Here is the input.
Amino acid sequence: MKILIDDKIPYIRGAFESVAEVVYLPGAKTTPEIAKDADAIVTRTRTICNEILLSGSSVKFIATATIGYDHIDTDYCDKAGIQWTNAPGCNSKSVEQYIASTIMVLAEKNDWNLSEKCIAIIGVGNVGSKVARICEIFGMKVLLNDPPRQRAEGSKQFVSIQQIMTEADIITLHVPLNLKGEDMTFHLGNDVFFENLIKTPVIINSCRGEVTDSKAVKSVLKSGKISGFVCDCWENEPDLDLELLVLTEIATPHIAGYSKDGKAIGTLMSVQAINKYFDLGLENWEPSGVELPLNPEIQIDGYGLSEQKIISKAIIHTYNIMNDDYNFRNNVADFEQLRGDYPTRREFTAFTIIAKNIEEKTLNKLKQLGFNIA
Here is the structure.
């Protein structure tokens, strides 16, 4: 048995060596010749798994260690009898952390009281539901929009796009990229969407670049129709619209889901999927060597601080999004390298708060976010 593995997938080395021939692909580069006698492929979004790569090969299973699977031609795979799987929800807590840091940075910059702010979440799946939970912990008014879930579950907890356009101070997008159909999300953020906004919200795109129309976003940023754009996912990346980058309030190189925890979970899900399909006896395998945070203890004296400031201090200690913004703007030509060499980022559960002068209700909120309390 032969397995091809993108060599940038973390913590996977050694997973299959006892049961298969393993070929690691530098830079995710594979060819029809390399894939011809392979039985399985473990990949990320940079390997395009389509008919050109797979036709005539012996590949039976593809596992991508990512939530997204646009890089897999699923129609072709289904017709060719090639099974495939992604890793839904693997990095959802990482994106939750990314959005939490974004909100706290914006709140400090704009002197916001979050309990007076309304956030709309478009797409309430693995990621969106976690973002909704933390925003409720922050005391924000939360609006949920998810047409597929609304059709399946009823309308009670969901609102219309029109209500979002009227009430939201922040709109964050967490939808898959659907190019057609009833739930098409390609250019969901387009001229019509933006022109119908009543308020001037901040827009956050940390799902897929093509969900927002870059030309339309530039236009409304220039006109003041929206008050800011936070962008992690870009159209045509890594070939970015540099004018949009300059206009963007916070810019990052598609790393919202790049916590070490999320990467380890994505790897684990891929290994488990291949193990189950081929019955390899690797049920007990787990990723090892997940890096520890540099400063896992957070000392916070809450005397004279608001609850929002205390929570903000804890979140920013784990991840300050402005560091990624700075590195990206100063190394924009190194988009892929910034992603490939991304530094250690651990989620809230890897940190312990040493608390002083913090009320019990605030400590409970920190626990709800996932922090350990000494």
